[in-house]
Amino acid sequence: MVHLPAMRAGKRDSQGSAQRVSVEVRADPAAGSPAKARMLWREGFTPLEMANSSMNAKEMKRQEVIFEIIHTEADYVRDLRLTAEVLLDPLRSLRIVPAEQVDLIFGNIGEILALHEEINAAFMERQRQQYPVVWDISDVLLPFVAGFRVYARYICNQDRALALVEQLKSECNNFAVFWRERQKRPECRGLPMESFLALPFQRLLKYPLLLRTLLDATEGWAQQYANGTAVAEQIGAWITKIQDAQTKLDSFACIDALSRAVAGVDWAPLAGAEHRLAHAGPVAASLRTAGVLAPEQAATMWLFDTFALIAAGDSAGARGFMPAPGARYTAVLRPSRIVEVLELAQRKGKPAALVRAVPADAPAQTVSLVLGFASRADYTLWRAKLDEHVRHTLAQDPGLSADILADAIARARIVDSEPTQCAGVVRTKIDSGLTSANASVSDIPSISVRDVYVEFPVPQRRGRLRRGWDMLRTKTEDLTGSGIKHQLRKYGGGKRRATELPKPAEPPKPATPRRLPRVVPKRESSLAPPKPSAGMISTPIVPLSPSFVHIPRTAGPSA
Amino acid sequence: MEAAPEITAAFKLLFVGDSNVGKSSILLRFTDDLFRPPDETSATIGVDFKVHMHDVDGERYKLLLWDTAGQERFRTLTSSYYRGVHGVILVYDVSSRESFAHLDTWVEEVGAYCLDGDVVKMVVGNKIDKEAERQVSRQEGAEYARRLQALFLECSAKTRTGVRQAIEELVAKIIDTPELWRRGSPPKATVSIDESVTAGLGSGCAC
């Protein structure tokens, strides 16, 4: 596939020295001390060896980049493994929190690890074959790029996973203790546990940077340059798709919240499709019916690529684009497609625009209303987003009646000739965002919301999230709706063990945790010396042993 | 050293700014006292995040420094970075007028994602070793920072001028603003950020 140049610079026995390059430099076992800076490729050679090599500065630079790609990949895989071994597995086997929540926190990190184990192995193999000068690396990466799809689900849910971690830290004592104890482990290098969860995201976004640097140093090597370009474009395309999926997922959450907050709107047809929130914020809206302008109303507009909604209500407590939880809004403008925006002369000293829209549930009608904006800057921002929306609507919406469409387009043409009044509202083809001729880039599919959607528990009912032994104490139902008994049976307690349990009438005894013989973590010996002690919760360092799962004194049942 | 003194608090600091302004370089210079000249090595990244123990007046603070190198173009994805941030370091390149002009968009972003608005901001002009190519004067930078009510410093990761001072000033400012990091919980190794819990879960959404 790739034609390697015949020349090889360093003369070395490739078998004997291969290990030397893949040495782990960053692993610094001293707890709390930051990781040391990465080793350089050239540091693997003696000055004499460097002087005798026939490489010029550019070739050396290229080797540094390749070395960095290989090396950071190894680091990444090591850290992912660490995440699985130090966080994921013990959290699951100790059942500090229920398995569903572990799944929510770590998502499909296992799939990502599997993918990168393979990439890492391929890199190592290439390095072994071509040591000390690796002629290309992108051709090794190329076959794996299609698998980068696994990142979508992980990254799109990362934010909520981190939020869940924060919540568990504050609500579940055992979890907080576990999380803190893990952070102090030497192999975690003093890094907060959350940073391990962010690794896949950071690594994915590093590839374009690494590959760009590689390409800069690859000019003149035609085959390698083509390979590098292909990989860089494909990874770039994946990132774009993932970003789009994230936007759609966030918009979905926003529509979900809106459907609860805004009454009197039929959300069903909208909820089934995908939307992208373009902008949201306060506007002053007044409907214009039969030429009469209704009084101005302070409201909030949510502008999606496929529809706009204006609703008035108490916006206090709203965070970002989301409606305030529990707030009630009344729709001023039902979900509608905006077909036209005309700037008006100032209204009460503020910029204003006349907007014509077609309600989604009545495609033959048009509604016009006047929007007032707080400032010129606000208007400019809105105007850009609105124009984009209109362009999108006119270009691709088949649901609009031909009359309205023709009317809007005709007007757009007229107003186009007077740029002082209105910027162009022209039927344009929507740019796919990908201009590459590379066929494999366009092969990268869109990621739909369904692909990445993971249901997270609704936070209003905090009690549902209290897990572990808190559950025994409070006797609440767990997430799956099954009770403690079921839980016990499921986790190996069975009937035999159930006899040891306190009778339903009695409060559960602190001894009940011992019902779980399978709680022993697999790699127990490598984790921490067993040092069981009562009341350990009050001390920050907790030995990770079966006795870790104790009912803390404070959380014990009070008779 | 390992009989580590009690950590008073952990601060999360985030480096933002255009590509190639030297975010990673400042970080690497601060934590490892290293500088990798771009023409000599790959110097692509270096770091994702670093932990640094910082002692002020006998108290020990743990700094979590987050680099965003390479992620400048992917705005929607970086929103989760802003979760629980105490300080943001807005970096521009004094030899690039463009990077200075783009600070506005970064400020906007910080405002959009740090919803409580109570993060300490610092504007840092990097690469003052390139005095001959300077395009943004010190006054301009200082004036911009003043309008933002942010701290301001010029530095050079290459010559190490100002790097340490920049982070020290920022940390001092955070320490002086206890409502920023105490947030109702007793000081301990992990500062829980309650707002972000309700923000993230309450909305179920990154925005």
| Oligomerization status of the protein chains | heterodimer
**What percentage of residues of chain A falls in helices of 4 or more residues?**
40-55%
Average pLDDT over all residues of chain A: 69
- Class by SSE composition of chain A: alpha+beta
Succession of helices and strands of chain B: EHEEHEHHEHEHHH
Q: Radius of gyration of chain A over alpha carbons?
A: 30 Å
Supply the number of helical segments of chain B: 8
Overall residue-averaged pLDDT value of chain B: 76
Give a quick account of the main beta sheet of chain B: strands, pairing sense, barrel closure.
6 strands, mixed
Order of strands, main sheet of chain B, comes to: 2-3-1-4-5-6
Number of helices of chain A: 20
Give me the secondary-structure category of chain B.
alpha/beta
Q: Please state roughly what percent of the residues of chain A sit in beta strands, choosing from under 5%, 5-15%, 15-25%, 25-35%, 35-45% or over 45%.
A: 5-15%
Spans of chain A of 5+ residues with little confidence (pLDDT < 50)? Answer: 1-37, 414-437, 460-559
How much helix, percentage-wise, in residues of chain B? 25-40%
Report on the structure:
The complex is a heterodimer of chains A (559) and B (207). Helix content of chain A is 45%, strand content 12%. Chain A has 20 helices and eight strands. Chain A has helices at residues 14-21, 47-52, 57-94, 99-106, 109-130, 138-141, 150-171, 173-183, 193-197, 199-216, 222-261, 268-271, 376-396, 402-416, 439-443, 449-452, 469-474, 484-490, 494-498, 524-527; strands at 262-263, 277-289, 292-293, 297-304, 308-313, 329-347, 350-359, 367-372. The model of chain A is unreliable at 1-37, 414-437 and 460-559 (pLDDT under 50). Chain B has 207 residues and is of the alpha/beta class. Chain B is 33% helix and 21% strand. Chain B is globular and about 45 Å long. At the A-B interface, helix 3, helix 7, helix 8, helix 10 and helix 11 of A face helix 1, strand 2, strand 3 and helix 8 of B.
